[in-house]
Specification:
Two copies of one chain form a homodimer. Chain A is mainly alpha-helical. Chain A is about 40% helix and about 5% strand. Chain A is built from six helices and two strands, in the order H-H-H-E-E-H-H-H. Bound molecules: FE2/S2 (inorganic) cluster (FES) (2 copies). The structure holds a DNA duplex (30 and 30 nucleotides).
Chain lengths: ~150, ~150
DNA sequence: TTTAATCTGGACCGAAGCGGTACCCATTGG
DNA sequence: CCAATGGGTACCGCTTCGGTCCAGATTAAA
């Protein structure tokens, strides 16, 4: 139902926690403790986030993780793309690997890309810092419109 | 990977096709033929869309389906909500039924709702008509930002 | 009245993706 | 040399999704 995967959710949580713990070096078990997430999952996620260049790792004894950049420079979209893969709503969006089976006789051909771009843009406008800090809406989001999107 | 389900994709395709076939009454097998989608799936989807009030059904011989409203008044978000369920990115977004397991010690508590609202708004701004008609961008979408969202 | 076309609702099943776990290797500071 | 920590990979059970099928209700037309 257009949900984020659990891993992605937790990934954002981890980055927010790292943002709150200032420039300190935090270990994987430490993060698991402070967030309440299961330790093995945290470790797995940190590997992925490191590989994506969102966090910096320091190996060896007394090692740990830190944010690679300022939290205001990390967008939610980047985190989603790092863990869940590139944002491609359908098979027939520009950049998707697979091809749409019914592309020949489809009334909307490549026009899904417009929706995809809109979502990409919306996600790139929200930074980890906005999610980590209590106050600060920063962006004036016009209250989700009046159209009913819930059941 | 933040994909739309196949059914949802097809649902939008069906509505677009209905929008193109003017106010004509189209049968389920007819829609399957014109879109190239498997007939049983089309039938299943039309039931759901009817139940959601997006299409009108006419039973009996010479029956068929029609759009319930003008295609410009049907947003992509509505279609997604009708088929995939309400847009709730995570378990801890306002309106979600389940509760987040780590809500007590979570650095971003209910702040996911901001992201959710942004996506809802983006999806409610795009109508079926925009996807069904060849021209007309209508909305000035600022080219999906520069932030890399692909792998 | 009879017939045929069409929608309605529900049940069913196989396949794929996801979440979670475990294991062992590489690196580094003490 | 040793202990602590990250790095990588492989595995497995569960849930969900996509797709199919069938019996029943409804209505226009012959
Ligand atoms: S659904 Fe893929 S091209 Fe239309
Ligand atoms: S992830 Fe649910 S409250 Fe933070």
């Amino acid at each position: 139902m257009l949900r984020l995967s659990h891993l992605t959710d937790y990934g954002v949580v981890l980055l927010s926690q790292l943002a709150q713990e200032a420039p300190a070096l935090v270990t994987a078990p430490g993060l698991a403790a402070s967030t309440g997430l299961p330790a093995p999952t945290v470790a797995k996620l940190l590997k992925v986030l490191t590989h994506a260049g969102l966090v910096s790792s320091h190996r060896g004894a007394a090692g740990g993780y830190t944010l690679a950049r300022s939290p205001v420079c990390i967008s939610v979209g980047e985190v989603i793309a790092a863990i869940d893969g590139p944002l491609a709503l359908t098979a027939c969006v520009e950049g998707a690997v697979e091809v749409c089976k019914v592309e020949s006789s489809c009334p909307i051909r490549g026009r899904w890309s417009k929706v995809n771009a809109a979502l990409k843009h919306a996600l790139s406008e929200i930074s980890i810092a906005e999610l980590a800090t209590p106050g600060s809406p920063v962006h004036d989001m016009p209250a989700a419109s009046g159209v009913a999107l819930s059941h």
